[in-house]
Specification:
With 154 residues, this protein is α+β, with helices and mostly antiparallel strands. 19% of the residues lie in helices and 42% in strands.
């Protein structure tokens, strides 16, 4: 769930929708225990948010994803959280039996009405299906001193 390389001030999540179904995981700890949420987690030091999302999805769900756009960002005095729309690449949904007890593809409309799907997850799902594009990754040669760099814009 975390290690000495974990940056607890930066976290990511992603909404993956395939064939009208959203990928959800039943959380096993903390305030979301027992709830179906979109997978995600902390960014490791030396890792981009996109890399963190790919890693977290693979670790928690056995699904390979590709982040495509940013659908939400939350900032507070302690940390930040970036929510991506991501595409399914490959894999069969499978629980990690650690951070989640089950992983499943659920019809989007069903997910938006269930009591065991928290409001934040519902808002992110709505954002993923309603935003025309979100903030899209744009090729950009950043300052090599600050590499890797990424730019998302309209």
């Amino acid at each position: 769930m975390g290690n000495e390389n974990t940056n607890y001030g930066q976290s990511v999540t992603g909404v993956v929708i395939k064939d009208g179904k959203v990928l959800l995981a039943r959380h096993t700890y903390g305030g979301g225990k027992g709830m179906l949420i979109v997978p995600g987690g902390y960014v490791n030091f030396g890792e981009t948010p996109q890399q963190a999302l790919i890693r977290e999805y693979l670790e928690e769900t056995n699904i390979e994803v590709k982040p495509t756009s940013i659908i939400g960002i939350r900032f507070n005095m302690h940390d930040w959280y970036v929510a991506f729309r991501a595409e399914y690449v490959s894999g069969t949904a499978k629980s990690d039996n650690d951070e989640n007890s089950e992983v499943l593809w659920m019809d989007v409309d069903t997910a938006l009405t269930r009591d065991d799907v928290p409001e934040l997850t519902k808002k992110l799902i709505r954002g993923a299906i309603s935003l025309e594009n979100g903030l899209i990754f744009t090729e950009y040669e950043g300052n090599p001193k600050h590499s890797p760099s990424s730019l998302y814009c309209i």
